[in-house]
Amino acid sequence: MDLITLDFETYYDKEYSLRKITTEAYVRDPRFEVIGVGVKVNNKETEWASGTHEQTKNYLKALPWENSMVLCHNTMFDGAILSWRFDIRPRMYTDTLCIARALHGTEAGGSLAALSQRYNIGTKGTEVLDALGKRRGDFGPEELERYGDYCINDVNLTYKLFATMAKGFPKRELHLIDLTLRMFTEPTLDLDTGLLESHLEDIKERKDQLMRDAGITDKKELMSNLKFADILTDLGVEPPMKISPTTGKDTFAFAKNDEAFKQLLDHENDQVQALVSARLGTKSSLSSCWITRTIRFRHWYQRGSAPNLRSKKHGRSGSSTYLNVGYYPYQ
Fold first, then answer.
1. Element (H, E) at 39
2. pLDDT for res 258
3. How would you list the strands of the sheet with 92-95, edge to edge?
4. Residue 320: predicted pLDDT
5. Which of 87, 192, 239, 263 is the most buried (most CB within 10 A)?
6. What is the rounded CA–CA span in Å between residue 225 and residue 269?
7. Residue 131 — pLDDT band, cuts 50, 70, 90?
């Protein structure tokens, strides 16, 4: 099996970057553009290719993917580009980031720069910082050549890292890394948008109904501790208090885990019950989480099948999406 080490360099700006949005959203965004790609087949000299999308696609399609293992640093990113943008799916994926996290844990520096320094194999460049906000067409010939040299260096560092870290690394773990990455790069989960929309409306309606039952027209009255305490006082209820673990001073006990506050759900005054229910329902992190998650699911489906984003060990963490891959290529 051949080893293809690669690294994509792509457009990014202050708002559109992996610091702002998820890998899935970034790769599928209409602003996405490949500036160039560095490729090393086995131990051959690393190449830099930069062209239009079609030119890059034709260059990549000529490589022997069906019998190759793809190696990157953070393969979730580069593998997604291969799969979603160029319709290329190699026989196997591997990743120096995944291997490093297995060897050194998630707390140790996992960047290519940190690992290169750790293993004393070379120094990662900084040319990518000069590419902020620049499309491929914005690069002059010399700038593009320097960017290509930077990318080639990244590919070579990744190749050296793998040669060092993969020695003695369990083959079974390499298969697990491949399967984990494949669940992201080759998603199979389709979502029922009608059911998602219905679920979203149900959650919003429940929160609105809690507000109506409490006789509240302004959500700020519920969100503000002082205003909420005033409403309770007007209803003849002494706002429950507690000692703040942060400041050591008295503060309102309005959290969902505060027993004195939860007891008000059984208050003799129905309006007090409705008020506390509305406060808990409106400020509930779980309720807000479901709204946010449902909207995120809807956006995924609008861009394509939803990938598995739950993996702190093997890539950027995100919400849980469980899916049936349906095959395992090593059986």
1. strand 34-41
2. 86
3. 47-49, 34-41, 2-10, 68-72, 92-95
4. 28
5. 239
6. 20
7. very high
Q: What SS3 class is residue 22?
A: coil
- Asked if residues 35 and 60 have their Cβ atoms less than 8 Å apart, the reply is no
Half-sphere exposure at residue 146, Cβ-oriented, CA atoms within 13 angstroms: 12
pLDDT at 287: 46
Closest CA to 6 of 80, 66, 78, 63: 78
In sequence order, what are the beta bridge partners of 250? 243
Cα three-residue angle 88-96-324, rounded to 5 degrees: 50
Domain chopping of the chain, boundaries: 2-190, 193-289
Dig out the tokens for 263 from the structure. Answer: 């007891």
Residue carrying structure tokens 């309005």: 254
Helical spans, DSSP H, in 7-140: 23-28, 53-61, 75-80, 86, 96-104, 112-118
Return d(Cα 273, Cα 213) in angstroms, integer. 9
Domain 2-190, what architecture? 2-Layer Sandwich (3.30)
Q: How far apart are the first and last CA of the chain?
A: 17
Cβ atoms of residues 321 and 312 within 8 Å: no
The DSSP call for residue 164 is H
Strand duo 34-41 + 47-49: pairing: antiparallel
CATH architecture, domain defined by 193-289: Up-down Bundle (1.20)
Residue count (the chain):
331
CB hemisphere CA count around 304 (13 angstroms): 18
pLDDT at 135: 95
**Exposure of 67 by Cβ count < 10 A (0-12 exposed, 13-18 middle, 19+ buried)?**
exposed
Residues 23, 53 contacting (CB under 8 angstroms): no
Residue 108 pLDDT level (bands cut at 50, 70, 90) = confident
Q: What radius of gyration do the chain's Cα atoms show?
A: 26
What are the C-alpha distances in Å from 2 to residues 52, 64, 67, 164, 170? 26, 8, 6, 18, 19
